[in-house]
Each structure stands twice: as C-alpha cells, then as structure tokens.
Amino acid sequence: MKILLVDDSRAIAMVMCARLESFGHEVRHAANGQAAIDLFQAEAIDLILMDIEMPGMNGFEATTRIRALEGHEPWAWTPIIFVTATDTDSNLVTAIEAGGDDFISKTVSEAVLQAKMKAMSRIAALRSRLSQANRKLQDQANRDGLTGLLNRRAMDLQVDTLWEQAARAGRPFSLLMVDVDNFKRYNDHYGHLAGDECLRAVANCIDHCVQHAHDDRTALGAFAARYGGEEFAVVVPDAAPGVHAGLASSLVEAVHALRIPHEKNGDFGVVTISIGGACIDPTAGHVKELFRQADDLLYKAKESGRNRAEV
Ligand code: GH3
Ligand code: MG
Ligand code: MG
Ligand code: MG
Ligand code: MG
C-alpha cells in the first residue's frame, strides 16, 4: 500500500516510517494537516495514518476536509487510522465523527500494527475492485452497444454541460445531424446483419474524422454520438461559425469514400450520408432550437438529393 503518514513529530514519523517500510509499504510523510491534504490530492493514497495534535490544522480537521474531497467520487473511501498518545473516549468519538475508521496508540506493538495494516490492505483492494467495476459499468451505460459511440443519454448530458459552458464563455455552439441515406433499402437488400456492419463502419468513419478534425491546428473538442437508429449527432461545442460546415462536408466525403456497396442508393451505388448542421449563439436561443434547425436542414439535404450537407 501507499501510506500517507501524518505527524508533526519528526522523530515519531521516522520510527513509524521505518516500521511500515519494513512491512513492504511505500510511505509518504506530511508534517501537518494542510501538507496531508496536498499530498492526498496529488497522489493515489491507499491508507492514511493520522496524528491528532498538530500545529495549525489538527488531525480531525484534516480528516473532515479529506472526506469532503472524496465526496464527489462514488467509491472513494481512503481508510484513515488515527494514531495518538491519548486514546481517550472523547478523542475516539471525535475521530470517528470526523470520518476516521480506526484508532491506534503511538505505543502500538509491531504485531498489532502489522495486523491492522493487513486488514486495511483488504479494504483497499476491495475498494479498487469496486471502483474499477463502477467505471466499467458507467462506461457501458454511456455507450451504444453496436457502434461503441456515446449513446443518446450520454450525449444529452454532455450537451447540457457544454451548452452552459459555451453560454458563459459567449462562444457559438454547433451541431450536425447525420443520417444514412436509404438505409431501409440497404437492410431490405443486404439483410439486417450486413446493415449492422454497415452502421458500425459508418460510425467508425464519422468518429475518426471528428477526432482528427482540427481548426487551424487546434483540436475541435467535438464528439460523435449515436442519436438513434441510423442517425448520428456530432456536437461541436466551440466552433467559429463556418467550422461546422467544413466538418460536415468532410464527413459526407469520407463516408462516400468508404465505397460500401449499396445498389439501391440511387445513382450513388455506395453508402452515403446526409447532414443538417446548425450553429447558434447559446445566449440567444435554447438548445432545442439548435436541434430543430439541424433537423430542418437535414430534411433539406434529403430533399435536394442526399449525399450532401446543408448548413
Ligand atoms: P432516408 O434516406 O430518407 O433517411 O431513408 P432511410 O431508409 O434511411 O430512412 P428510414 O427512416 O425510412 O429507415 C431507417 C432504417 O434504419 C429503418 C431501420 O430498420 C434501420 N435501422 C435503424 N437502426 C438499425 C440498426 O441498429 N441496425 C440495422 N441493421 N438497421 C437499423
Ligand atoms: Mg502531534
Ligand atoms: Mg433516419
Ligand atoms: Mg427517415
Ligand atoms: Mg436514413
């Protein structure tokens, strides 16, 4: 484990440090509460051994603050053991109320210290498995199973946040609505399995273009999502007007260049997409207006022959 040892006494810290290292742990030392918080934020710590009496911020206060920092993360819980010379009832109660997990005396025997460290390693291992599983579940909940792109739910959440940010910064916000042309006929002609493969390839191509799109060498910060069925959305949160138009035509070209055979797609003979793209000032309109405009322009792109972008 990586242990954060918080103690204002250099002598005690050196003794404890040597013992913990002899059990195979890695130790970081902080000589006061604030230094402990700084180290905790800078490094991945598995366990904290916390002194109580320290000049400035004491151990109770430092513990309360560390617990507040952990508050945003669902599985974050770093075991904190108080180490003190005065293990009175009132100290024990205050320690637990501040968010401490255990309490040991400064004169603790080597055997007991080692046993407690073992128990805490088990907690640290469990916590790390939970946090990994949680991250995996979160990722699964945000992604579309077929294409691996962000799903509609995740996109809506992202758009809300980015829209607010763009409004505060007074920057334009762009959206491209992408729809595969005559895709019903593709399924009818080639079958649904081939249809799925085709959607995967188109999604991949769009994602690749969006990830590599640059505006004068600056990455756009844009992302693609599966909006539903054979429709995709590309969110361009911080684009100068016109940038979204360039991206839209490069997407149309890139999908056409895949040359995926589609005999029933009019004269094109290959799979194509149509795009409606809108760019609006977030302080002057609602996000629904952005989607409505993009949708109208997509309809126009379909009407005027497909395999094109209207922006
Ligand atoms: P348009 O050019 O006007 O967009 O015509 P279209 O045929 O693409 O539009 P329409 O909305 O009539 O048909 C969309 C088709 O997309 C129908 C649906 O079966 C198919 N589709 C939607 N999701 C999936 C999917 O996940 N896999 C497959 N294979 N097909 C899908
Ligand atoms: Mg002290
Ligand atoms: Mg459609
Ligand atoms: Mg349709
Ligand atoms: Mg379509």
UniProtKB/TrEMBL annotation:
One of its GO terms (molecular function) is diguanylate cyclase activity. Keywords: Coiled coil, Nucleotidyltransferase, Phosphoprotein, Transferase. SUPFAM superfamilies: CheY-like, Nucleotide cyclase. It catalyses: 2 GTP = 3',3'-c-di-GMP + 2 diphosphate. The modification 4-aspartylphosphate is found at D51. Residues 2-121 form the Response regulatory domain. CDD domains: GGDEF, REC_hyHK_CKI1_RcsC-like. This is diguanylate cyclase.
